[in-house]
Write a structure and sequence with these properties.
Length: 214
């Protein structure tokens, strides 16, 4: 317990950093994921192409490489932001590709007649998607989206290698102070467990309330 009690402020700072990264990156991932899923099923070919390229590139790019591209590449084009913002961009964009595919699979489970009925009533594609298709699709994809966001929380550990304050990065400070590395990582693992179990509990509640009964 000495490792935790004597360095509680260090752990707390790292824990809050990971929570902040996870929260804002999740919001970005969900927003972009919904947008790209809409593009993927849009009747306009150019939008479908954009969605396909987005998903294909990001799903097949290592997250560490994406961090390098964002944190080191964007400043070369004059975009200078705090490293935390760059980390949110990298995590959010990467995860959005997986959110997109989860949503697209859910959209494919909605009977085609639902969309045809909506269009026969005069609804546009956007109205049909947001008011008819996505609400039904979301009910079927709650578990995979929850799993994807849990993975995002764990992937945030990469940000520590790019001078971003997060939980895993606390081991460097404590190692330099001579604390036992095993117990240092035990308490780091506990911190990640708290975050991932909280996300899991939230999505369990959503699934029980809105999910499709099986």
């Amino acid at each position: 317990m000495d490792v935790l009690t004597e360095n509680f402020s260090t752990y707390a700072e790292g824990f809050l950093g990971t929570v902040e990264l996870t929260f804002f990156a999740s919001l970005l991932a969900l927003a972009l994921g919904f947008l790209m899923a809409a593009f993927r099923v849009a009747p306009v070919g150019s939008l479908r192409a954009i969605g396909t390229v987005w998903v294909t590139v990001l799903r097949n790019t290592p997250l560490t490489l994406l961090f390098f591209a964002v944190l080191l590449g964007l400043p070369r084009f004059g975009l200078v932001l705090p490293f935390t913002v760059f980390a949110v961009l990298a995590l959010g964009c990467y995860t959005s590709a997986f959110i997109c595919e989860a949503l697209r699979s859910g959209i494919n489970t909605v009977p085609r007649g639902q969309g045809e009925a909506a269009r026969s009533l005069g609804l546009s594609f956007g109205q049909t998607l947001t008011a008819v298709v996505l609400p039904q699709a979301f009910r079927t994809v709650i578990p995979p989206i929850g799993s994807t966001l849990i993975a995002l929380a764990k992937n945030s550990a990469i940000a520590g290698a790019f001078s971003v304050t997060e939980l895993l990065g606390t081991y460097k400070t404590l190692s330099e102070l001579g604390y036992n590395i095993i117990w240092t990582f035990v308490w780091i693992a506990v911190g990640y467990l708290i975050i991932t179990l909280t996300i899991s509990a939230l999505f369990n509640v959503l699934e029980k309330r809105y999910g499709v009964a099986r």
